[in-house]
């Protein structure tokens, strides 16, 4: 049984919670915005949802997730997975509000606050990913795999 809740040495409950909130906003508001902007409705929204949900599920940095389908360097994950999700979570609620002829200010302010909180709470993890997610810099090296443990002791 792992001694840590999260495999990433710099992931915390606060950073994981706010990151999930950003993802949930992107998953809902992104396809909704695409549907309203293109005029194609759910024919455009379903592929947008598949991309927003599928890319983070498939591309992961080793040491950051429990299950890694396609190993991805930390910087690539930040640039091609997390930055677009944050951008969609930031902008899409304003598009949804504008399409509904509602004031854009409140959703934009709320999404800005959410993204800023997520970035702030996950700053250590973001720096770790940007540095290439080196496991040697992990706090206490508790996340090393048994294969790198040369002393013969197991972490179990």
**Continuous helix count:** 5
Structural class: mainly alpha
The SSE string, one letter per element, is: HHEEHHH
Largest sheet: 2 strands, parallel
User: What count of structural domains?
Assistant: 1
Q: Provide mean pLDDT, rounded.
A: 79
Residues in β-strands, percent: under 5%
Low-confidence stretches: 137-156
Give the overall shape: globular
Q: How many DSSP-defined strands? A: 2
User: Largest sheet, order of strands side by side?
Assistant: 1-2
Helix content: 55-70%
Backbone CA Rg: 18 Å
Task: Describe the structure using short key phrases.
156 residues; mainly alpha; 5 helices; globular; disordered C terminus
A few lines on this structure:
The chain has 156 residues and is mostly helical. Helices cover 60% and strands 3% of the residues. The protein has one domain (13-134).
Please give a structural write-up.
It is a single chain. The chain has helices at residues 13-38, 42-58, 74-99, 105-121, 123-130, and strands at 59-60, 70-71. With 156 residues, the protein is mostly helical. It has one domain (13-134). Strands 1-2 form a two-stranded parallel ribbon. α1 packs antiparallel against α4 and α3 packs across α5. Mean pLDDT is 79; it is low at 137-156.
């Amino acid at each position: 049984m792992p001694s840590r809740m999260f495999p990433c040495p710099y992931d915390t409950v606060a950073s994981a919670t706010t990151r999930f909130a950003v993802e949930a906003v992107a998953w809902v508001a992104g396809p909704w915005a695409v549907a309203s902007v293109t005029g194609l409705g759910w024919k455009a929204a379903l592929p947008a949802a598949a991309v927003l949900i599928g890319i983070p599920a498939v591309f992961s940095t080793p040491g950051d997730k429990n299950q890694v389908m396609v190993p991805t360097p930390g910087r690539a994950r930040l640039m091609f997975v997390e930055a677009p999700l944050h951008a969609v979570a930031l902008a899409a609620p304003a598009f949804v509000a504008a399409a509904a002829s509602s004031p854009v200010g409140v959703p934009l302010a709320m999404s800005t606050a959410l993204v800023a909180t997520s970035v702030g709470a996950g700053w250590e993890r973001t720096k770790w990913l940007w540095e290439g997610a080196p496991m040697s810099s992990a706090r206490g090296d508790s996340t090393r795999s048994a294969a790198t443990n040369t002393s013969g002791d197991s972490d179990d």
